[in-house]
Amino acid sequence: MADQIDTPASPDDPFDAIVDAPFDAALSERYLVYALSTITARSLPDLRDGLKPVHRRLLWAMRQLKLDPTGAYKKSARVVGDVIGKYHPHGDASVYDAMVRLAQDFSLRYPLVDGQGNFGNIDGDNAAAYRYTEARMTAAAIELMAGLDDGTVDYRPTYNGEDEEPEVFPGLFPNLLANGASGIAVGMATSIPPQNVAEIVDAATHLIDNPRCEPIELMQFVKGPDFPTGGQLVDSAASIAEAYATGRGSFRIRARWSVEDQGRGTWVIVVTEIPYQVQKGKLIEAIAQIVNDKKLPILADVRDESAEEIRLVIEPRSRTVDPDVLMESLFRLTDLESKFGLNLNVLGADRTPRVMGLKPVLEAWLDHQIDVLVRRSRHRLAKIDDRVELLEGYLVAYLNLDRVIEIIRTEDEPKPVMMAEFNLTDRQAEAILNMRLRSLRRLEEMEIKGERDKLLAEREGLVQLLESPARQKTRLKKDLAALRVRYGPETLLGKRRTLVEEAAPAREIPLEAMIEREPITVIMSQRGWVRAMKGHVALDTAEALKFKEGDGPAFAFHAQTTDKILLAAEDGRFFTLGADKLPGGRGFGEPVRLMIDLPDGIGIVNLFPARADERVLLAASDGKGFLAKSSEIIAETRKGRQVVNVRSGAKLLVARIVGAGHDYVAAVGDNRKLVVFPLNELPEMGRGQGVTIQKYKDGGLSDVTSFKLEEGLSWAMGGETGRTRTETDLTPWRVARGAAGRMPPLGFPRDNRFG
């Protein structure tokens, strides 16, 4: 591919001339132009009025249609049509979406559009089509555009040059911080949370009085974001201040909730406010999914009882559940706690994007308001001068009314005659000549002089204002005070909605805290059927010994519903069962292989509850073994956890809990030889083959156990007597780990098992 485009240039029209240029340079230049247009004309808000071009054009079109707050509503389609036809040559869908957002009281802290009809809801439902909805402006929008007719801002031609539109709105309403903004440009983005107007005004007033104040001082006025949906801001004051100082950070928002007593000891949690930009419908679906998946055992149900106000009812599994534990779990698992990012990236007066902190933003906004004040004053001064000039002419006409009438009646060109005789200007003479006869009755000297004197006094005040920056600041503070009255904390719209109260991060609640602790008796048959009976029943009762025909007991022990049950398999894998999830003990239970991925050909070595402070003695049939902590061999999935790496032809033979105070190990092989060695000669591992416990010429390990040396080694005697024998003198069998050993004492069981 050629890297240059060669096209003959047109000598007639320089605009149409095509210049040879490297392809990559031309492409990069055009992409840069596109990126800049996206940044400045679409995605980033202007610092001065906090609006993107589409929002500004929407409000301007509504102003042209005279959609005042006191007037009638008009179809949204009319507004959208005017915008895309006159000012914004883009798709109607994007324009209408922008208009819908301006009308949503759950999206904007201070809505700029008063919508009538379906403009969407907090559940996430879309607005109706623009042919079905109507709209007009709110009082905040009127205040944002106040002064447009007073020469306060510049106007620019529209895209086709047929009309003009304001470059920015001059109003005192601090829309950028009050309503926030969000947008994604090319290579940059913006995310500004809404703030409380009264707090912004207080901070701006303080900044006028103390221009050199530190950014941290402004935080005594601005407490943090004030979201339209309320909620609770749970970040620390230091982190909030840091975010506002740099213009970058994030805020943690939690739902507002309370416990509602239902009588007889029962209760429910009622959520009345949810985090900003969280769709209530999707939030309820997420909580319901947690209930269905049983991810939160202490949660029973969730209901939406919302009408005009949000009301989400969360039911606990039982009345003994701790409400704080339940909500902490939901904060971690759902959007009941969410983060809102702060990236205060805006366009300044020079149309340059930059990330600014709260203080620079307020300084730039105040500079803009001072400029608006100065331009408005100059515009009013010009109007006053024009009116005073006319009043001086009217006064001359009144004092010489008969002569003026005579000149008009007799002279062919009365204008120059009047100008010469009464020393009038061209505008004064023209105004007198254009006066209607009925106006003559209103020409009274005192009225004319009174209006003139009043205007001259106003003019003097404006001149003093323009000459004194101090007076300008005082006037701005006065205007800000009037704005604060309209949006003060005592008003319905101005009252702070988001509670600022620091809270710790949502912690992961252990399973034990979510399950009601109850005693159970776990029983597993030889064929792998497991069940859990309520309470600690005797292990020799008829109910405990009830099995299917041809089946029999394998493992039985007492536990709690909060325990995790460990199952050791012959292939060296360990599986974990939740004691609260075991089938009830009324029947025969259920096959454990339905709960875990354990093949039929693999036998079960042991079943026991996991204890954090216990160790397990693990040994394979080839005589290798090691120690493992119970807490480190817990499996998180159905596939289990490989703990013992058994060699080909071998299998896990022993998984036995090491009792408290045990200090020695006894091992017996298939060759009926016994070895005894200290427990500390076995390593503690999380996974592996281990070390050699006993050496064999033929066969392998038969059994291994741990014990206290001072108490001796015990084993069960044969027969039905149930007696045990204890050998205290183990000197002949005490050897180093890995020895062959010697024959056990007389009376040792024929099956080579310690019992």
Provide the spatial order of strands within the biggest beta sheet: 14-9-8-17
Name the CATH superfamily classification of the largest domain.
DNA gyrase/topoisomerase IV, subunit A, C-terminal
What is the rounded Rg?
A: 43 Å
Please give the CATH architecture of the largest domain.
6 Propeller
Show unreliable segments. Answer: 1-5
Beta-strand level of the residues, as a percent range?
Answer: 15-25%
Description:
By secondary structure, the chain is α+β, with helices and mostly antiparallel strands. It has five domains: 1-32, no CATH class; 44-171, Alpha-Beta Complex (Topoisomerase II, domain 5), CATH 3.90.199; 256-335, Gyrase A, domain 2, CATH 3.30.1360; 361-492, Topoisomerase, domain 3 (Orthogonal Bundle), CATH 1.10.268.10; 511-733, Neuraminidase (6 Propeller), CATH 2.120.10. Helices cover 30% and strands 22% of the residues. The protein contains 17 helices and 34 strands. Strands 14-9-8-17 form a four-stranded mixed β-sheet. A four-stranded antiparallel β-sheet has the order 10-11-13-12. The two termini are 84 Å apart.
Q: Mind sketching the topology for me?
A:
Layout: H1 23-43, H2 53-64, E1 74-75, H3 76-87, H4 92-103, E2 113-116, E3 134-137, H5 139-144, E4 155-157, E5 164-166, H6 175-179, E6 181-184, E7 189-192, H7 197-209, E8 232-233, H8 237-246, E9 248-254, E10 256-263, E11 266-273, H9 280-293, E12 299-304, E13 312-316, H10 323-333, E14 337-343, E15 345-347, E16 353-355, H11 358-399, H12 401-410, H13 414-422, H14 426-433, H15 445-467, H16 469-486, E17 499-500, H17 511-514, E18 519-525, E19 529-534, E20 553-560, E21 564-569, E22 573-578, E23 590-591, E24 604-609, E25 615-620, E26 624-629, E27 641-642, E28 652-658, E29 664-669, E30 674-678, E31 691-692, E32 701-707, E33 713-716, E34 724-727
Parallel strand pairs: 8-17
Antiparallel strand pairs: 1-3, 2-3, 4-5, 6-7, 8-9, 9-14, 10-11, 11-13, 12-13, 15-16, 18-19, 18-20, 19-23, 21-22, 21-24, 22-27, 25-26, 25-28, 26-31, 29-30, 29-32, 33-34
Helix pairs in contact: 2-3, 3-4, 7-11, 7-16, 11-14, 11-15, 12-13, 13-14, 15-16
